[in-house]
Design a protein that fits this description.
Layout lengths: L3 E9 L2 H12 L2 E2 L7 E4 L7 E6 L10 E5 L4 H13 L3 E2 L11 E4 L5 E4 L13 E6 L3 H11 L3 E5 L2 E5 L6 E4 L13 E6 L6 H11 L2 E2 L9 E5 L5 E5 L3
Parallel strand pairs: 1-4, 5-8, 9-12, 13-16
Antiparallel strand pairs: 1-13, 2-3, 3-4, 5-9, 6-7, 7-8, 10-11, 11-12, 14-15, 15-16
Length: about 240
């Protein structure tokens, strides 16, 4: 059986504080769990959760992935920006032009994200997180399409995007040139399998698609730690 996207994970210097920020901005509920498993839950059970894991590794350069948040109207965009600033976010300059309609912000841990202007057709009907926008090759877009069995919804000029058959957030890759990777990614995918699935068989399938395994055993807490074709970390949880 195919892995499902269980969570987008943030390596965070203050997991609880970052969870409160994103819970406030998105309106998602904090999950009940142990202190080392801080997460917020989507309103739709078909969506992915966001997990915040402790890390003291410093942030170097821009992240390879960031959220694009949607807006229903200009007023809605302004309210989302104001809410982010109220919870500890800040405006940042990543080279955006004044005439561009999106607003670029960073969360309290320095992770970039955008609040997209209303009327963006590509992100229509995706939900509050319209896209996880990634720096990556066409090859890695193809890999994740096969890995998750999500169809390609964009494949042009080496730019790719996939989306669950059930809809929701799109995952996009901007094509080359891809900036060199510096250290461990702050955002990464966590995959999970149904309880009756064969975990080793799924890990082998992902390797056959182009992933590599980086751990020598089960990884941390029953996970396989892996890299996709662009060298981005991801993990596969054992069925529970």
């Amino acid at each position: 059986m195919t892995s499902q996207l269980f969570a987008i994970c943030f390596n965070a210097t203050r997991p609880s504080g970052l969870a409160r920020f994103w819970s406030g901005v998105l309106g998602w509920e904090l999950a009940d769990g142990p202190d080392d498993d801080v997460a917020i839950l989507p309103p739709d059970t078909a969506g992915f959760r966001i997990r915040f894991l402790p890390s003291q590794e410093p942030k170097i350069g821009q992240n390879r992935a960031h959220f694009d948040l949607t807006s229903a109207s200009p007023e809605d965009q302004q309210q989302t920006v104001a809410r982010a600033l109220e919870f500890g976010g800040k405006h940042i300059d990543v080279g955006q032009l004044p005439e561009e309609g999106h607003v670029v912000l960073a969360d309290p841990d320095g992770n970039e994200f955008c609040v997209i202007e209303a009327g963006n057709k590509f992100l229509a009907d995706t939900g509050v997180i319209g896209a996880l926008s990634c720096d990556g090759t066409q090859e890695v877009g193809y890999f994740w399409s096969e890995a998750l069995r999500w169809p390609l919804v964009w494949d042009q000029d080496q730019e790719t995007a996939i989306q669950s058959p059930d809809g929701g957030t799109k995952i996009t890759w901007g094509g080359p040139p891809v900036a060199p990777k510096t250290g461990t990614n702050r955002l990464y995918f966590e995959l999970a399998l149904p309880t009756d699935a064969d975990w080793e068989e799924e890990v082998d399938r992902l390797i056959s698609l182009g992933a590599t395994r980086t751990d020598t055993g089960e990884g941390d807490g029953g996970r396989a730690l892996m890299l996709d074709p662009d060298g981005n970390e991801f993990s596969v949880r054992r069925p529970r």
